[in-house]
Amino acid sequence: MKVGIIGGTGQMGAFFATVFTRSGHEVRISGRKTAITNQDLAHQSDLLVISVPIHSTVQVIEEIAPLMRQDQIISDLTSLKTGPVSAMLKTSAEVIGMHPMFGPTANSLQGQTIIITPGRCTEDHIQMLSDLFGAQGARVTITTPEHHDQMMAVIQGLTHFKALVMAETMRRLGITPEETEPFMSPIYRIETSVAGRILAQDPSLYADILSQNPEIPKVLDTCCQSAEMFREIITAGDTAAFSEMFLDDRRWFGEYCTRSLEETDRLIATMVRA
What we know:
This protein is of the alpha/beta class. Helices cover 59% and strands 14% of the residues.
């Protein structure tokens, strides 16, 4: 195929340019300073991939929408899917949303997850992309844009929210990560490292992920309600109520608890050796 990547000069766009090139496809990219324009790629590509910041994605799609044909495929690499897929469906092209569940610093697709959210496309084209990513070691999950955004509200929204709250709490307490290092347990180091990893990156990315997914407010409201319940129980010293909630949550997680204990034991052992 002729693959065009709008935003291909960015980190994620460049990563997927390599992915498609390794699979034998001809890749062309556009960016703010390239001679090739977004419109050029819309005219010339068999598969056109949008790889721009979340807040710009729908606007870019709308700009090139009139140029797309029925014999083309349009896709995106955005962390949200409902809005971009809806915008892409206004083109004449086949529509396949994509979300790589990793950052552009990954070395390869080996062991990574890519989510595909078909909008309007043939099974052959879904299989083609699944095979392409699978051949390079990725695990492909296929779902709807709506279900994707519901899952991301927990997987991304809740995780990022907890990490940022941890960082803000430490700042308000006047305690730095360096101050806690002599006392760190492996689990605490993992939690602190997640917060540090997020804070080392672009704040606008996380602002977009947290503010533009319509499913996230409900998740964060539930998180705050849960936190308040635990705060009240702990402050009151009500160990019976604490144990009841603890065991309710254990039953909800089920066998995942056992698997998590084993997996984190292996992770901790690796960290200690390192």
